[in-house]
Specification:
The chain is of the alpha+beta class and about 425 residues long. The chain has ten helices and 26 strands. The strands form seven sheets. Strands 6, 7, 8, 13, 14, 16, 17 and 22 form an eight-stranded mixed beta sheet that branches. A five-stranded antiparallel beta sheet has the order 4-3-2-1-5, with no helix packed on it. A hairpin with a 7-residue loop joins strand 1 and strand 2. Helix 1 crosses helix 3. The longest helix is centred in the N-terminal third of the chain and has 16 residues.
């Protein structure tokens, strides 16, 4: 488990204007991403600091040894190369960049390599080879199961095996890219009738987190749960958009297909495991009577500190709200600790059969619902399957998303004695 060090000092300050006390990107965070500079040159790796992006590879000459090599690896238009080498190069890079950004004597040489974030283009941080979406949010699973199986919301396997399905990596897009409403078949009203075909009328969001794979494993060589964290690059925010009416018709017998493959949005910044060290927390205890994880999924250190103390929020704006300059309306808020399985358990289970994970693979947590009112991670839960109507502050009503609606997801971590860090935003507008 990663330990805290001088880079987590809450009293540390940066000479970068606006970085100190920044709600997302103070010098204690230093998340990695891929950006296109304002001059239109080739996209490459960067680090968010305040409202700026640091061109990391341009500073390789100001760093030493492993940190310098890691900085040079960020010159590629994806972060796969950097994280493929494991956690230590990223750790050394973090410490080296931290020193540069907190040392006033480095201001003159570093400043030319800082770009206003608002003037840059952000990209999906990895070349994503594979995408697996899990179903770790037990309160979400209970809520969804109750809609379809009131007497038996959770199937027997849920508490023994991390449930997941393979998603579509080609349709993953960075925050800010519009979502085109998908078209497909929906369940006919009468048995034996032909299914209707057309645009989805029950378009929904899913409040999730993205777990990025760093160093992979060889085919046939499982990753032990006690070593799984060494294979995690970091986390981002994920919105796995869902067409609930398409899903209801197609999901049996093989699970999600067109209802899920049309678009998935990720926030652009990868908050590293180093940055998250102060915010690790115990995995919530399982309810009395629940089975213990099987031995290949059980590690005491992981249970003691394998969860993340991160708060997640989802907000909505509509065309009328934006026209009136109304603030976004918060739909829900909840903790990432709503996961029934830890990130390490997901890695261990995914690889236990011999599957070779690769740098840049994306694992979604599944929708994370808090289990308390106001913590629902999707509209299908908030509206009880479309039976209830949500009334927004301006009087507009919603059951599912309409064209022009924008969903904004945010996440942050805070703890006494440490600087708050954020994951930025994951946002997108629905287009017809």
């Amino acid at each position: 488990m990663t330990q805290t060090d001088f880079t987590h000092d809450a009293n540390a300050t940066s000479w970068v204007e606006g970085a100190d006390g920044h709600p997302n990107f103070p010098v204690q965070n230093l998340p990695l991403g891929v950006f296109g500079p304002p001059d239109g040159s080739t996209p490459r790796g960067g680090i968010a600091i305040g409202d700026f992006i640091l061109d990391v590879s341009a500073l390789a000459g100001r760093l030493d040894g492993v940190a310098a090599d890691a900085a040079r690896a960020t010159g590629a238009p994806m972060l796969n190369i950097l994280f493929a080498a494991g956690r230590e190069p990223v750790h050394q890079l973090r410490q080296g960049v931290f020193r540069l950004l907190t040392d006033e004597s480095q201001r003159e040489v570093v400043t030319p390599h800082l770009h206003q974030a608002a003037d840059c283009t952000l990209h999906v941080p990895f070349m994503v080879g594979d995408y697996t979406d899990f179903y770790t949010g037990i309160h979400h699973a209970m809520n969804i199961g109750s809609l379809f199986r009131p007497d038996n919301p959770l199937l027997p396997n849920y508490k023994y095996v991390p449930i997941g399905y393979h998603g579509r990596s080609s349709s993953i897009r960075v925050s800010g890219v519009d979502v085109k409403r998908p078209t497909g078949q929906t369940k006919p009203g009468d048995d034996g009738a032909a299914p209707p075909f057309g645009p989805s009328k029950r378009l929904d969001y899913e409040l999730e987190m993205a777990i990025w794979v760093g160093q992979g494993n060889a085919l046939g060589e499982p990753i032990p749960v006690g070593e799984a964290e060494e294979h995690i690059a970091g986390i981002s925010i994920l919105n796995d958009w869902s067409a609930r009416d398409l899903q209801a018709w197609e999901y049996q017998p093989l699970g999600p297909f067109l209802a899920k493959n049309f678009h998935s949005s990720v926030s652009p910044w990868v908050v590293t495991m180093d940055a998250l060290a102060p915010f690790r927390t115990a995995q919530p205890p399982r309810p009395e009577g629940d089975p213990a994880p099987l031995p290949y999924l059980m590690d005491q250190n992981d249970q003691a500190a394998g969860a993340f103390g991160i708060t997640m929020e989802v907000l909505i704006t509509t065309p009328k709200m934006r026209e009136a300059n109304d603030a976004p309306h918060r739909l829900s808020k909840g903790p990432m600790t709503a996961m029934y399985w830890t990130a390490a358990q997901l890695i261990a289970h995914h690889s236990v059969g011999g599957c070779n994970l690769q740098p840049g693979d994306l694992l979604g947590t599944g929708t994370l619902t808090s289990g308390e009112e106001g913590g629902e991670g999707s509209l299908i839960e908030l509206t009880e399957g479309g039976k209830k109507t949500i009334t927004l502050p301006n009087g507009e009503e919603r059951k599912f998303l309409e064209d022009g609606d924008e969903i904004i997801m945010t996440a942050y971590a805070e703890k006494d004695g440490f600087a708050r860090i954020g994951l930025g935003e994951c946002r997108a507008i629905i287009r017809g």
